[in-house]
Design a protein that fits this description.
alpha+beta, DNA-binding, about 260 residues, 6-stranded mixed β-sheet, single chain
DNA sequence: ATGGCATAATTGTTATGA
């Protein structure tokens, strides 16, 4: 089965591209971020027509996460404990996998209120995992973590060292997820540098190759052991009206 | 030092992204 994650930067602006990608790649589970729409206005019909069940946690204008699944969805949870911002959505996909669609706060600029919120949010995610999961159970966290964990995740690391995406404090907070027991599925299959998942819309970042790997598939060891391949669909950053993110995917052995 | 480019809210301009 194929599981994937994509920050689409508005599902309504990206609908035709997302449908075309799904029709070509036939993923079984898709986590979306930055859907930017309330649940009542999410364009659910074309996904249902393609055989997906939907779990939605959206809000107006900002944020918004979703899980599309060809396996039956159950036990849906919205938000980290007590949270109203639409950044975290959890569901069981079939019998053997807990999937979380994750949208970590960007952090604005280093030192800002948004920056401290980002670092605290990553810690809350870690606490949530420690509370509700164990490394021995099959979990997959898929999403936009807004952190490039290592220098090989940044095409021009010296230029990005002080940014919220690659600052050492953000990397340390991300590292606590790995220290808890999560495995980076793309890194299991690619030494790097890259593959990158995000390129700024501005300044011709994509043609210049100025990319960062900030979208991740993080899995507990039993899921990582089932992962046969993983990668990034870089081509989805090309062409008219792309998201600034490309989809990241992994192929898992069926259970 | 700043803007770049895109989106959604609105219809001129802002907030936010990463």
């Amino acid at each position: 089965m194929i599981v994937a994650s994509w920050n689409v930067n508005s599902i309504r602006a990206r609908l035709e591209r997302v449908l075309s990608w799904i029709d070509r790649t036939q993923p079984d589970v898709v986590c979306l971020q930055e859907t930017k729409v309330v649940d009542a206005d999410f364009p659910a019909a074309p996904f249902r027509e393609r055989g997906y069940e939907l779990a939605l946690f959206g809000q107006k204008t900002y944020n918004g996460v979703a899980i599309l699944s060809r396996l039956p969805l159950s036990e849906v949870r919205r938000g980290l404990d007590g949270e109203t911002e639409a950044r975290f959505l959890q569901a069981c996909c079939g019998e053997h996998l807990v999937v979380c669609s994750v949208y970590v706060p960007n952090g604005g600029t280093v030192g800002s209120e948004a920056w401290h919120y980002k670092l605290a949010w990553l810690d809350r995610l870690c606490t949530y995992l420690a509370t509700y999961a164990t490394p021995e159970t099959p979990w997959l966290l898929a999403g936009d973590f807004n952190v490039a964990p290592e220098a090989r995740d940044v095409a021009f690391p010296e230029a990005w060292a002080d940014s919220v995406l690659f600052h050492e404090e953000a990397r340390r907070a991300f590292g606590r997820l790995l220290a808890w027991g999560l495995v980076d599925l793309v890194r299991q299959h690619h030494e790097g540098p890259g593959p990158y998942t995000w390129w700024d819309y501005r300044g011709l970042a994509f043609p210049k190759g100025d990319g960062l790997r900030i979208d991740h598939l993080l899995a507990t060891p039993p899921v990582a052991a089932r992962c046969m391949a993983a990668g990034v669909d870089r081509d989805e950053r090309k062409g008219p009206k792309p998201s600034d993110h490309a989809p990241v995917w992994a192929k898992l052995q069926e259970l």
